[in-house]
Please model this.
Amino acid sequence: MIDLLDDKLRNLRVQLDEIIKDLHGMTVGIGNKPLAATVSDLRTRIKEPFMFVVVGEVKAGKSSFVNALLGSDVCKVAPDPCTDTIQQILYGEQVEVVGVNPHLKKIYTPAEILKEIAIVDTPGTNTISAHHQEITEGFIPASDLIVFVFEAKNPYRQSAWDFLDFIRDEWRKKVVFILQQKDLMEPDDLVINEKGVFNFAQKKGVNNAKVFSVSAKMELNGNTDESGYLELREYIADNITGGKAPVLKLDNNISTSINISDRINDGLRKREEQLLSDKNFRKDVTETLDKQEGKSNYQVDVLTENIISTYDTVTREIGEDLSQGLSFVNLFKKAFSSIFNKKSSPKSWIDDLKYRLEHELKDQLTDKLNAGVNDLTDSVSQMVSMIDLKIKSNQTVLKGSDEIFSHIANKRNSVMDDLRDTFNQFMKKSENFKDDEVLPSEQNFSPNIATGSGLAVIGMVIAAVAQGAVFDITGGILTTVGVLFAGITVGMGRKKVLNAYNTEILKGRQKLEGEVDDKLKLYVRNVKEKVEGNFKEFDLMLEHEEDQTRKISVEHHKIAQRLKEMKKIVEKELV
Model:
């Protein structure tokens, strides 16, 4: 039996009111206006009596059922389908009707049963208007018992059972089933329909469904023994009234609050799952860029190594020929031969060395550059294309249809759509892959080159950067070596000339290696950073989402724990 003192009940109500207040604050904070309105309404009704909400199709006899239960003609009963208003029936010393709005009115009447319960009579589920549906569904969260009234002859009409799905799936409310107008049925047929409703309810997830067959007509005409209302009133007395209703009301309010908390929790889990997915996606993008940058830098190393190897081979061969040709005997022979043939003179020999150095470097380095640039171009282009593919295939967990965080899902989807569009445009624009930092503007391409095809310009830029670095440096070397060669005479020291040649060649080698490596790696890094630049808005969203989900999770956990503790206290009182 329940032995709950009034002051204890009031204290529990105050505690629950504080929790629901915090729950309402959370729903406002997460931006869910419909749920915030539901929680606000639940808080408003916390002190109201235990509430029956009567639902069913038109002509099922809902209003007649209510009138017979109350023993007075309270609800309007019409021969034609009545979709007038929702009627909330409450206890009052005198009969009074108060219009709340065009679709809802409150009826006060001195029926004894209304001291412990309130009744909401709703329009037919099959003719319910948009306003009626909004208000009817608004009563459901704060309801304590849903009374489904069916026409005894045909209790299988779809709209009522669809509404049961809404009540069970969304709010997990307690329900009882009424077969009205049993006086129009043969007893055997009535039993069949009672079993049919029981079994159908079982399939809908209502275990041990309570099914009552009644006749409002018989009850109102004084045939109370056969009307079926005695059994119904006994059920109400045993399970709801007799001092139990306030505690049951409190327990139902706690259960409804837990239901809302659970729904927020489900939405929060999806939101956190989406956040984790997006963070992993972002991490994957960063790791892919780093990996591809490393791969591209390796290609630069290979290209630089091949260029330097070719440079060393050509300059070494020329150096060896210079060393041999500068011997006293060979120079003397060349000087003596020039008396008879000017093409055999030391000057001609020096000019030939210069020509060989210039053309062999140009030809062989060009071949190495072409091969290396192709590999590097593929690597950089692949880096950009891989990120594009990852953006297009990024997983969506939190849907726009999510009950709790649909607005967050829509914002996130908008950011992702912008990222996809922005990156798509980024890939198309060739200027995003040109680079004034590594390729001086006067060497850059005209605006018409590779227009609308950003990736196509990568190879052209890399080739220009590599060739510019190589041929600028080797050109300088050739100029210096040419001046050196021009000053060679028979009287010059061989060792001094070779030292000067080797010194210039070494300077050129070091500069060539540094310039090619630095400029190409800088280009790769700059492309990588430009790719990363497309994620600014996405990164801001992730930062905000991480902060918000953490705060909501902490707040929700506290509310859920308080509700859980209250549920235990009240359940002990109901034992």
User: Anything to note?
Assistant: The chain has two domains: 48-242, 270-548. Strands lie at 50-55, 86-91, 96-101, 104-109, 117-121, 145-151, 175-180, 210-213.
